[in-house]
Amino acid sequence: MSSQTQFRDRDLLAVIGDEDSITGLLLAGIGHINDKQRKNFLVVDSKTQVSAIESAFEEFTERSDIAILLINQHIAEKIRPTVDKYQQAFPALLEIPSKDHPYDPSKDSILKRVQKLFGE
């Protein structure tokens, strides 16, 4: 299978985020439930266990239909070792801010990797 064919079917965004972030993105039209009844999003609240977040992260990064995985940065902090270990090109991983937690570039694992490449 050529790399062109391999990435052609990646047409979904996946999101792991707080209720406000997920609601906004669902209203924007990213919600999808596939034929196996698997969603492309996980709503995380104070009761959500870290193991559930890690398992959603693993599922989303292994799916072949997801091009980009968005995760609220404060949620990524809860599974930071798993996020830091992830190095695949697809799905691309982006840490995003939430309403109550602003973006902190010093915590973003992807940005740290880019800075290391450029010797900063």
From TrEMBL:
GO terms for cellular component: fungal-type vacuole membrane; proton-transporting V-type ATPase, V1 domain. Subunit of the V1 complex of vacuolar(H+)-ATPase (V-ATPase), a multisubunit enzyme composed of a peripheral complex (V1) that hydrolyzes ATP and a membrane integral complex (V0) that translocates protons. V-ATPase is responsible for acidifying and maintaining the pH of intracellular compartments. It is found in: Vacuole membrane. It is a peripheral membrane protein. This is V-type proton ATPase subunit F. InterPro entries: ATPase_V1-cplx_f_g_su (IPR008218), ATPase_V1-cplx_fsu_euk (IPR005772), ATPase_V1_fsu_sf (IPR036906). SUPFAM superfamilies: AtpF-like (SSF159468). GO terms for molecular function: proton-transporting ATPase activity, rotational mechanism. Keywords: Hydrogen ion transport, Ion transport, Membrane, Transport, Vacuole. Belongs to the V-ATPase F subunit family. NCBIfam families: V_ATP_synt_F. The lineage of its organism: Eukaryota, Fungi, Dikarya, Basidiomycota, Agaricomycotina. It comes from Botryobasidium botryosum (strain FD-172 SS1). V-ATPase is a heteromultimeric enzyme composed of a peripheral catalytic V1 complex (components A to H) attached to an integral membrane V0 proton pore complex (components: a, c, c', c'', d, e, f and VOA1). It comes from the Eukaryota. Its main location: membrane.
